[in-house]
Design brief:
13-stranded mixed beta sheet, transmembrane transporter activity, single chain, transmembrane, transmembrane helix, MacB_PCD, FtsX-like permease family protein
């Protein structure tokens, strides 16, 4: 019986090639979108699934300014790990991570640069389940100057030799040697912690660090005892902060815990999250899954629409089969077998589409997603089960509807097949296009917001600026490098800073001692710069002067931005910002404010301008050189910079990046989101148009004699095209009326996450309406014009 069902199903598919092709292509595209997103979701959810312990990361909420602006950060203070464990028995153990990138290591005549290295407590490998191939997992990092390196690092340094017990050296401010005590398996790609080597934290710990409660420069992780109530533990943290932090500074901090397995996808609102590899918001992942499901549902709707529209052809088949004894459930099974067959044929094409699209998806998402996950029985079951489910859901309504025909009425011709079913088809078409138009509008606004952030004036010049990275060795030669570049027509200016604009900058505590008021202690953002930094970036001053360039005064001169200026004068709102010049301000030994800078966006436009001060303090060290080059001779300028770097730092390869490219990375997650949503919305439109094409084809086919009569009576081609197209265009307009307000409401909610945002313009909605009507008109008119220009003699010959 099943064999017969499949044979009949195949014959019907082959007999109706156009409609079968439309259904198969539509379902294949919808399935491919779902499979790709499923692979992406599977990859994201696999992050850190090999970690087994009850691990939590400590995070801070820092309050900045009197308005109570808060920001969450992943960093914590050095003493917090041991003191929190000491204070609270719920904390079983802890480990801290201090990371460093471009870490130079030497072994005899071999020199390599690690992408990322961690200094960790000896408990690190007790907490985290990274595989140790050789060495003592529990005590390998206990002693100072011990190191455990990955297989890849061992191969680079020692080749096939045994690295255990060998010495490796790091040349920086102070030459540091390490003894290799173990070899680790290469870190899995689905780990948020990515490193090439682990070094003992005891190597860099100094006694004064235990008193350093002001600096946030590492990540702290805890293992909690089983059964710990996280909320109850966090409720004790304010008293802890009050006990250990000086004065009222504890009021500017809150502590909270985040489960380690939730860090990768659940920390979108947490800044300074430097070692969260491929961080991606789970809300966005869920959004992709929902949109992909919508695309698949649109494809299923196509099948339902076309099947019910063509019910008149199947009515006689049903009548004849019922008259010779077929039961209704047998007919329903026959129709369902057809849809399941279409579903599996679509799956084959979908897998081909997935294979073709994965290289592009991997390039876009920077993942390594493959179809190898089909080796998992769970995923195989989900795909095949989903295919059958799609077939059943697509075919259940047509099967019930078609099998319900009464044989006597059908064979007598007294049944009006399809009566009252036009309303259902209209509703499904409107639903399809509502979803597709909604996605189109969302895509346009997302792209406009992204373009707005990238083109918005940040308050400084960032064109043709090349950032060259410095490390512990090369920053000592900054002046030499600066002098080598200066004076050449290829370079318009050179300066340096500790951090790069567009990134989250460090926060610190400062003191303000006005001449007419009490002392103020507050937290704010810090940017360490060279004395000519403001000049190169063309930052404006609203009061005072620039740094003098006198290195003897480099820790005594401060420039504050307008936001910090208003914060300092919150008790004297009528005082002008210029009155701040000369006031005592700073940390350690107080200096003076020499200038007030006009506000500039030193973070992404997701955030408003926060209070910030700049200090020209070389002793704090620079991490980045900014070189403004001649934009008309970019290639020559880059070659010149590389040559000078190689001459001055022959043992350190240059790392550089245009500032514009850095900002592209800052907005990378937004860009990825917009592109993926755009692709899915394009697929939704494509599948909806396929269905519209099928319905238009069928409508023209069924009205061929009517068209012939109208042409004989003098109807023009234009009139006939309007007749055939009008109903479908009305449905598209209704879809717009529904989709536009829903999309505007959703986008207004999405834009709330941006401190600087575009306005919701009705022009976009009108443009999308016109585009959707044009797309629908082009889709329909192909069949309408074909029917309208056909020879009426042929259609009326049988009358």
């Amino acid at each position: 019986m099943i064999k017969n069902y499949l044979k009949v199903a195949w014959r019907n598919l082959w007999k109706n090639k156009v409609f079968s092709a439309i259904n198969i292509i539509g379902l294949a595209v919808g399935m491919a979108a779902c499979i790709v997103i499923m692979l992406f979701v599977h990859y994201e959810k696999s992050f850190d699934d090999f970690q087994t312990q009850n691990i939590y990361r400590l995070n801070e909420v820092q309050t900045i300014g009197s308005e109570g602006a808060k920001q969450k950060v992943a960093l914590s203070m050095f003493p917090m790990g041991p003191t929190l464990q000491q204070e609270f028995p719920e904390i079983k153990t802890f480990s801290r991570i201090h990371w460093t990138d471009k870490y130079q290591l030497t072994e005899k005549d071999k020199k390599i640069f690690l992408q990322q290295a961690f200094f960790v407590d000896s408990t690190f490998l007790k907490i985290f389940n990274f595989q140790v191939i050789r060495g003592d997992k529990l005590n390998g990092l206990l002693k100072p100057h011990s190191a455990m390196i990955t297989e890849e690092t061992a191969k680079k340094l020692f080749g096939d030799q045994d690295p255990i017990g060998k010495t490796i050296t790091h040349y920086s401010n102070d030459t540091t040697s390490f003894i290799v005590t173990g070899v680790l398996a290469n870190v899995p790609k689905n780990s948020q912690l990515q490193f090439d080597a682990l070094f003992s934290f005891n190597t860099i710990i100094r006694p004064d660090m235990y008193k350093n409660w002001g600096g946030n420069w590492l990540d702290t992780y805890f293992v909690l005892t089983p059964g710990t109530n996280q909320a109850a533990l966090e409720a004790k943290f304010p008293a802890y902060l009050k006990k250990y932090l000086k004065g009222d500074s504890w009021k500017y901090y809150q502590l909270f815990l985040l489960k380690y397995k939730d860090v990768h996808a659940g920390s979108a609102d947490i800044g300074l999250d430097y070692i969260n590899f491929q961080k991606f918001d789970k809300k966005t992942t869920n959004l992709f899954a929902i949109i992909a499901l919508i695309v698949l549902v649109i494809a299923c709707v196509n099948f339902i629409n076309l099947s019910t529209a063509r019910s008149v052809e199947r009515a006689k088949e049903v009548g004849i089969r019922k008259s010779i004894g077929a039961y209704r459930f047998q007919l329903a099974a026959q129709f369902l077998s057809e849809t399941v067959m279409i579903s599996f044929l679509s799956l084959v094409f979908a897998i081909v589409l997935v294979e073709l699209s994965l290289p592009y998806i991997n390039n876009l998402s920077e993942r390594d997603i493959t179809l190898n996950v089909f080796n998992s029985f769970g995923v195989i079951g989900a795909v095949f089960g989903g295919t059958i489910l799609v077939g059943l859901l697509s075919g259940i309504y047509p099967a019930i509807y078609l099998s319900s025909f009464q044989a006597v009425k059908v064979l007598k011709g007294s049944i009006q097949v399809g009566k009252n079913k036009g309303l259902m088809r209209n509703i499904l078409v409107v639903t399809q296009f509502t979803s597709a138009i909604f996605l189109m509008i969302a895509t346009v606004f997302v792209l406009r917001q992204l373009n707005f952030m990238q083109k918005q004036d940040p308050g400084y010049t960032r064109d043709q600026i090349v950032n060259v990275k410095l490390d512990g060795v090369t920053y000592k030669k900054y002046d030499q490098f600066k002098n080598a570049l200066s004076g050449n027509t290829l370079v318009e200016g050179v300066t340096a800073s500790q951090d790069i604009l567009g990134s989250h900058l460090d926060q610190t505590g400062v003191t303000f001692r006005p001449h007419d008021g009490p002392r103020q202690d507050l937290g704010t953002t810090l940017l360490v710069v060279d004395s000519n930094y403001l000049s190169l970036y063309n930052m404006k001053l609203v009061a005072g002067r620039n740094f003098s360039g006198d290195t003897a005064m480099d820790t005594r001169q401060y420039i504050v931005n307008e936001a910090l200026g208003h914060e300092l004068l919150k008790d004297h709102p009528k005082r002008p910002l210029s009155s701040l010049v000369g006031e005592h301000f700073g940390f350690d030994s107080l200096g003076t404010i020499v200038g007030v800078a006009k506000n500039f966006n030193f973070n992404s436009l997701h955030y408003k301008v926060e209070p910030l001060f700049m200090i020209s303090a070389r002793k704090f060290g620079f991490g980045n050189v900014s070189v403004k080059i001649n934009g008309s001779r970019t290639a020559e300028a880059l070659a010149f910079i590389k040559a000078k770097w190689a001459a001055i730092n022959p043992d350190s390869p240059i790392e550089y990046q245009f500032l514009d490219d850095h900002f592209n990375e800052v907005y990378k997650a937004d860009s990825q989101q917009s592109q993926i949503v755009g692709i899915l919305s394009g697929l939704a439109i494509f599948i909806s148009c396929l269905g519209l094409f099928g319905l238009a084809s069928y409508s023209a086919e069924k009205r061929v004699k009517e068209i012939g009569v109208r042409k004989v009576l003098g109807a023009s081609v234009q009139r006939i095209v309007i007749l055939l197209s009008g109903r479908f265009l009305v449905l598209v307009l209704i879809a717009n009326v529904i989709a536009i307000p829903l999309a505007l409401l959703a986008m207004n909610r999405w834009l709330r996450d941006f401190a600087y945002r575009i306005d919701l313009s009705a022009t976009v909605a009108v443009a999308v309406l016109l585009v959707s009507v044009i797309i629908a008109m082009v889709t329909i008119s192909f069949q309408a014009v074909k029917a309208a220009t056909a020879n009426p003699v042929k259609s009326l010959r049988s009358e």
